[in-house]
Amino acid sequence: MAEDKIPIRNIILLGHSQAGKTQLSEALLYKGGTIPKMGNVDEGNTVSDYNEDEIERKISINSSILNFNMGNVKINMVDAPGYGDFIGEVLSGMNAVDCAIIVVNAVNGIEIGTDRALKLVEAHKLPLIIFINRIDKEHADFNKCVGALENLLGKKAIVLTYPIGKEASFKDIANLVTKEKIDQIPADDRARAEKLSESFIENVAECDDALLEKYLDKGELSRDEIKPVLKKGIHENRIIPIMAGSSVLGIGIKELLDCVLENMPSPDEMPPREAINAQTGEKISIHPKESNFFSSQVFKTISDPYVGQLSIFRIFSGSVLSNTSFYNSSKKSLEKIGQLLTVQGKNQRPVDSAGAGDIACVAKLKNTQTEDSLSTEKEPVVFNHFNFPEPAISFSIKPKTRSDEDKISSALHKLTAEDATFKITRELQTKELIASGMGDLHINIMIDKMKKRYGVEVEMGTPKVAYKETIMAKGGAQYRHKKQSGGAGQFAEVWLRVEPLPRGTGFTFEDEVVGGAIPAPFIVSCEKGVKSAMQEGALAGFPLVDIKAIIYDGKTHPVDSKDIAFQIAARQGFKEAVLKSKPVLLEPIMDVDVTIPDELMGDITGSLNSRRGRIMGMEPGIGMQVIKAKVPLEEMYKWANELKSITGGKGSYTMRFSYYEMVPSNLAQTIIDNAKKVKEEASKA
To answer: Are residues 509 and 365 both part of a single domain?
Structure first.
């Protein structure tokens, strides 16, 4: 049976950008004795934000893996970015931890990143602490933040610590559990603190029938009576503690750490992790106390310029030694491993082994990527994927020089290995190389990385929309192809009909020729000709879809009929038939979910309506609304900038392909004319 050598806590720091997550991680590392002095985000010398772009922009872009020891407990931390553009970093980190701390900016209160973090924590069923940070800043309002959280979370939200003083006069923390230092709270705030202390005891008591009965009988409870019920309530997500502090001043950090050590679960206390037996396909449950075989999952990949590719993984059961091997059960390949490492920001430290519940790292694996499951070949298991969202924005990219062209493939491969939400595709229809991501900032940073890290520069542009063509009515044509102007002659005559098919059906070809009017080999030639015409389109050169073509008659010549002649006749006849069948343009329609503050609802719905969007519904959030709409892809290009302008950066959106729909006639002709113009210019070049 696998056992932890030392107790472990695995925690992720979440919240809106600028809430102070990285500064909090710095304060925790300092308190744990890992660093001799706290760094500062503004000075660019924190352990967590070490990337050049992070230092320059003063924001977290990548999740950083950190660790420190408090007494005999090892605490692994994932400091996750707050910007929605880097949601992939957040989601991968969520799958490596057992609990979360959401950091709230006491000045700004509940923000879109807070809302997103709360929903993610709820979806992953992680025990949670909310740390209201920056109490020392001007306009900080602890009670306003608490009120908003109480409105949202109800009785789950209980305040454990209360600030003594506010803004510049903030100097210490009062403990509402022990009531220590409550008498030091300024008089105008003390009544509020005492009321919160009473609410805390009542809400904890309601989590346990026996304790509630004792409280109703005695009117008070001791700390020893409260302690186990508080911990159980937090583990079951029935209690969410709220704590106050300032990461810059280091106030409230000790109390936060004490709460983590006393109330947050160790890996042993977490529910089993669900997985699939890779040999049998059966569902299995893995728990560090009950499973002694090695199993883990890679949640982060880093391309280190000195060490090479680093694969960081969470161990769910068993243990692993340096200079051995493990089995990648996702890729069905054996991986030899060298030195095991533990990660501290940009630095690594060698370790001999790592056990269940811990986070470890290894360099230069050949076939392993983020989300891959690692185990033993004898007992291979596969864990669930992370369910990354679809990209929200895309740009076309092309190398600036021939030198860039030679290096771009390798650079893009390394970048996509690091970030699963950064996707590179080749658009088959337009032949463009498309870079897709979660927002403008995300794409720009990845392009900047490619330049700084790999020396590859690209030109960015708006992608061409992959329009398609179809027909709305039945039609037909007869086409004779005849060539007898010297040399071998060509002759073919084809009679065909076309009919529209339901959207998404594709293409079908039917042969209704009787009496051998067209021999079977030439029927195959006709199908080839029709398929080539489908790719060329009839209106503007876009592929045709959802059409049935029926060959029902034709004529041949005993000498001049041949494969190429029937291909040409069928292709031209098909185009003529399409033009007689009410041809139209189709455009991709996207399902768009926009998260915005309540007060901006009207502005955003107006913006979407002006872009031919259809509002399908709304879902309330925490001072937020999620607008669900269907919007043409063409209208969504560059909408991110408009959303940012309207919301002041407080809005975000995701989108995914839904279906193809007919382009309105008043817009279609412009698209057709532009496509023809581009084609003419290309033919002259």
So the answer is: no
Helix (H), strand (E) at residue 528: helix 520-536
332: left (phi over 0), alpha (psi -120 to 50) or beta: left
Looking up tokens 């009670």 gives 143
Same domain? 189 vs 84: yes
Q: What angle, 0 to 180 degrees and rounded to 10, lies between the N-to-C axes of helices 563-579 and 520-536?
A: 50
**Whether 262 and 353 share a structural domain:** no
Same domain as 628, residue 523: no
| Residues of the domain holding 113 | 8-269
Residues in the chain: 685
CATH of the domain at 645: 3.30.70.240
CA atoms within 13 A on the CB side of 182: 17
Three-state SS string across 416-479, please? HHHCCCCEEEECCCCCCEEEEECCHHHHHHHHHHHHHHHCCCEEEECCCCCCEEEECCCEEEEE
CATH of the domain at 549: 3.30.230.10
Q: Are residues 24 and 158 in the same domain?
A: yes
Q: Which helix (H) or strand (E) holds 642?
A: helix 639-647
Strand 73-79 vs strand 64-70: parallel, antiparallel, or unpaired? antiparallel
Reported confidence tier of residue 683, pLDDT bands at 50, 70, 90? low
In a domain, 675, yes or no: no
Going by C-alpha positions, the residue among 22, 48, 77, 28 that lies closest to residue 254 is 28
Q: Model-level pTM?
A: 0.81
124 vs 103: CA distance, rounded Å: 18
Tens-digit pLDDT profile for residues 118-176: 989 999 999 999 999 999 999 999 999 999 999 889 889 999 999 999 999 999 999 99
Collapsed DSSP state (helix, strand, coil) of residue 638: coil
Between CA 163 and CA 171, with CA 168 as vertex, the angle to 5 degrees is: 40
